[in-house]
Amino acid sequence: MSTVSTRAPARAPRTTQSRPEAGRRRRRREQQWPAYVFLSPWMIGAVVLTLAPMAVSLYLSFTDYNLFDPPHWIGLRNYTEMLTDDPRYWRSVGTTMLYVVIAVPLKLGVALGAAMLLKNLGRGRAFYRSAFYAPSLLGASMSIALVWKALFNDGGSVSGLLGAVGIHAGGWVGNPHLAVYVVVLLTVWQFGAPMVIFLAGLQQISPDLYEAASLDGAGRWRQFVSVTVPMLSPVVFFNLVLETIQSFQVFTPAFVITGGKGGPADSTNFYTLYLYERGFTASHMGYASAMAWLLLIAIALVTLILFRTSRSWVFYAGEDGR
């Protein structure tokens, strides 16, 4: 009589990670730690100087905090008061929007014009490029703002020159209708940074495109519209985003020129200047924190709109369907 074996069949050996693969992963981890060491100052700075203050500011925006007493939680009261019961807040929003709408296009237009002149300039290009770029390094300083204030003040050089040609406008700094344009002109004067970026973009446009357009009978204006603008549109978009974000945060020129008051008649009371006044002059730091977060949201929304609308006018070489 035959017997049936009841022994279970032998299992296949469990597959494990091969030693060479484990060794490679271990060596890869060992090679990565120097990168984390060199990145650690940046990561510590990002957490301590950026992320942590942002978290504290967000918390303070829901509190009543006067810099001396402990913050008291009040919920959305700062936001509701700001949006419904503070006319100076809305005047600061209007002043800032007027400044952005005027200063950004003017600055980019002057920068593009200067870049095109430098591109076609033979000798002395390096000198003029450095000379045009210098105001971008100096314009944000307190000393330049003081000089600008003296130029446009009553009895200053600008009022004297205008008076000599029959335009008696007086000092711009003390005129509610002209004071904001003092800051605009100071911003436009600092066109050097976008000019350098425009110049780099212009130098990347192939001369063959202009030659082909010229053979088709296109003049200089037509070449600018049909060749320069489309090929330079990514650079224009880049400068537009940067300058728009910076313009929403204008502070130093307005603070110096108006003595930190935003006058006359709140005509230069920009958003950041009013934020500073509520936070450090009036000691309403909770209110100022709420203003800062609304400014962050506004800049994010404007930047998002610029990115969304850029699909219809920004041309990238190699893309089809445009």
Automatic annotation (TrEMBL):
<keyword id="KW-1003">Cell membrane</keyword>
<dbReference type="GO" id="GO:0005886">
    <property type="term" value="C:plasma membrane"/>
</dbReference>
<dbReference type="Pfam" id="PF00528">
    <property type="entry name" value="BPD_transp_1"/>
</dbReference>
<feature type="transmembrane region" description="Helical">
    <location>
        <begin position="178"/>
        <end position="202"/>
    </location>
</feature>
<dbReference type="InterPro" id="IPR035906">
    <property type="entry name" value="MetI-like_sf"/>
</dbReference>
<feature type="transmembrane region" description="Helical">
    <location>
        <begin position="223"/>
        <end position="242"/>
    </location>
</feature>
<protein>
    <submittedName>
        <fullName>Sugar ABC transporter permease</fullName>
    </submittedName>
</protein>
<keyword id="KW-0812">Transmembrane</keyword>
<feature type="transmembrane region" description="Helical">
    <location>
        <begin position="130"/>
        <end position="151"/>
    </location>
</feature>
<feature type="domain" description="ABC transmembrane type-1">
    <location>
        <begin position="93"/>
        <end position="306"/>
    </location>
</feature>
<keyword id="KW-0472">Membrane</keyword>
<keyword id="KW-1133">Transmembrane helix</keyword>
<dbReference type="GO" id="GO:0055085">
    <property type="term" value="P:transmembrane transport"/>
</dbReference>
<comment type="similarity">
    <text>Belongs to the binding-protein-dependent transport system permease family.</text>
</comment>
<keyword id="KW-0813">Transport</keyword>
<feature type="transmembrane region" description="Helical">
    <location>
        <begin position="33"/>
        <end position="60"/>
    </location>
</feature>
<feature type="region of interest" description="Disordered">
    <location>
        <begin position="1"/>
        <end position="27"/>
    </location>
</feature>
<dbReference type="InterPro" id="IPR051393">
    <property type="entry name" value="ABC_transporter_permease"/>
</dbReference>
<dbReference type="InterPro" id="IPR000515">
    <property type="entry name" value="MetI-like"/>
</dbReference>
<feature type="transmembrane region" description="Helical">
    <location>
        <begin position="97"/>
        <end position="118"/>
    </location>
</feature>
<feature type="transmembrane region" description="Helical">
    <location>
        <begin position="285"/>
        <end position="307"/>
    </location>
</feature>
